[in-house]
UniProtKB/TrEMBL annotation:
<dbReference type="GO" id="GO:0051287">
    <property type="term" value="F:NAD binding"/>
</dbReference>
<dbReference type="InterPro" id="IPR006139">
    <property type="entry name" value="D-isomer_2_OHA_DH_cat_dom"/>
</dbReference>
<keyword id="KW-0560">Oxidoreductase</keyword>
<protein>
    <submittedName>
        <fullName>HPPR reductase</fullName>
    </submittedName>
</protein>
<dbReference type="InterPro" id="IPR050223">
    <property type="entry name" value="D-isomer_2-hydroxyacid_DH"/>
</dbReference>
<dbReference type="GO" id="GO:0016618">
    <property type="term" value="F:hydroxypyruvate reductase [NAD(P)H] activity"/>
</dbReference>
<feature type="domain" description="D-isomer specific 2-hydroxyacid dehydrogenase catalytic">
    <location>
        <begin position="34"/>
        <end position="113"/>
    </location>
</feature>
<dbReference type="Pfam" id="PF00389">
    <property type="entry name" value="2-Hacid_dh"/>
</dbReference>
<dbReference type="GO" id="GO:0005829">
    <property type="term" value="C:cytosol"/>
</dbReference>
<dbReference type="GO" id="GO:0030267">
    <property type="term" value="F:glyoxylate reductase (NADPH) activity"/>
</dbReference>
Length: 139
């Protein structure tokens, strides 16, 4: 990596059905040079050397032995979620690669949804809405 060059991070893609959300990509670009899986697969040998991290979003890209063998300079795999049970930690650590995640990233939204569901249930909101809408049925 040249002086002043941002470290490369491998992502499945940006946008679309399975890629990173655009606003997340904007944030990552402040600190990393994003390399998509498509770019990596087009030139594994050259591009693979530039990648120092892999950002896993919604369990993608899949981390396997073949991928890690093609990333000689990878140091960390960052998972954008609470768990890492979809990652083979023993195999990953055998490459000297660290794994991290975001354990509290969804704590507040999860609590908000839980409270909303409890209030809706206690106040029978779904049933109340259904009983006041012509043609609707109770759930």
């Amino acid at each position: 990596m040249a002086e002043g060059e941002l470290p490369g991070v491998l992502v499945l893609g940006v946008g679309g059905t399975h890629g990173l959300l655009e606003n997340l990509a904007v944030l990552l670009r402040k600190h990393f040079h994003l390399i998509t899986m498509k770019e990596f697969l087009e030139n594994k040998k050259e591009v693979g050397r530039k990648i120092q991290a892999v950002f896993v979003f919604e369990c993608r890209p899949a981390i396997d032995r073949a991928l890690l063998e093609s990333l000689p300079n990878v140091k960390v795999i960052g998972n954008s979620g609470v768990g890492v049970d979809h990652l083979d930690l023993k195999m990953i650590s055998s490459f000297g690669v660290k794994v991290t995640n975001t354990p509290h990233a969804v704590s507040d939204p999860t609590a908000d949804i839980g409270m909303a569901l409890m209030l809706a249930s206690a106040r029978r909101l779904v049933e109340g809405k259904a009983s006041h809408v012509p043609g609707s049925q109770l759930l």
